[in-house]
Amino acid sequence: MTFSPAIKIAPSILSADFANFGAECEAIEAQGADWVHVDVMDGHFVPNITFGPATCAAIRKHIKGVMDVHLMIAPVDAYIDAFARAGADVLTAHVEAGPHIHRTLQAIRGHGIKAGVALNPGTPVESLDYLLDMVDLVCVMTVNPGFGGQRFIHSQIDKVRALRARIGDRPIHIEIDGGVTPETAPLVAAAGADVLVAGSGVFKGGSVSDPAPYGVNIRAIRAAAEAARA
């Protein structure tokens, strides 16, 4: 996995058919997805429960590209090893998920994988001022974490701009998670984001037996984002 500033679409399997995860991962990649985004929730840090390391390990064999694992769990450090062994290419933890986010990022990088840090809507960009030299990705939450299908929080666009200014020429991805559609994608792309996580925005209208709408949705989001950069 090498750094590229090009727009990347990362469908979240939180909106996929839970009974057909393997086939869904293969379908979205075949329809143009760049990354596969896995939202891990524990019912404690966020008010929902989703997947664990076993699910990540099971779907890994169905993913040819990047498996982007977003850990919305606390405490987080005790589970880094399990998710790394499950095949994550990127592991992202929240600033508030443990007492020592610097140590958490060190632990992730110690497994030879990319380290991400996530900012909730109420988390200031200044919290990263002493972390940027050890992260590969910053995930800006444009909804409150916990559930799919929420409305995009427009105040986070300014956060993306501020983050882009702080990053400078460092090879760090800015990922957007929440409410990504062809309408919101150009707003965050113009502000400096390059990885767009979309759940319902990708999976709506399609299925494993009829995956063509996935491709239509992915292309619409990508085209809107790329146009904003032109």
Which structural class should the secondary elements be placed in?
alpha/beta
Shape, please? globular
Assembly category: single chain
Uncertain stretches of 5 or more adjacent residues: none
How much of the residues is beta strand, in percent? 15-25%
Percent in helix:
25-40%
> How many E strands?
8
Radius of gyration: 16 Å
What letter string, H or E per element, gives the SSE order? EHEHEHEHEEHEHEHH
Largest sheet: 8 strands, parallel
Output the strand order for the largest sheet: 1-8-7-6-5-4-3-2
The N- to C-terminal Cα distance equals 25 Å
Average pLDDT, all residues? 96
Tally of helical segments = 8
Feature tags:
8 strands; 33% helix; 8 helices; single chain; 230 residues; eight-stranded parallel beta sheet
Describe this structure in words.
- By secondary structure, the protein is α/β, with parallel strands linked by helices.
- 33% of the residues lie in helices and 19% in strands.
- The chain has 8 helices and 8 strands, in the order βαβαβαβαββαβαβαα.
- Strands 1-8-7-6-5-4-3-2 form an 8-stranded parallel β-sheet.
- Strand 3 (66-72), helix 3 (80-85) and strand 4 (90-94) form a beta-alpha-beta unit.
- Helix 6 (185-191) packs parallel to helix 8.
- The relative contact order is 0.17.
Give me the secondary-structure topology.
Layout: E1 8-11, H1 21-30, E2 35-41, H2 53-60, E3 66-72, H3 80-85, E4 90-94, H4 101-110, E5 114-119, E6 137-141, H5 156-167, E7 173-177, H6 185-191, E8 195-198, H7 200-203, H8 212-229
Parallel strand pairs: 1-8, 2-3, 3-4, 4-5, 5-6, 6-7, 7-8
Helix pairs in contact: 6-8
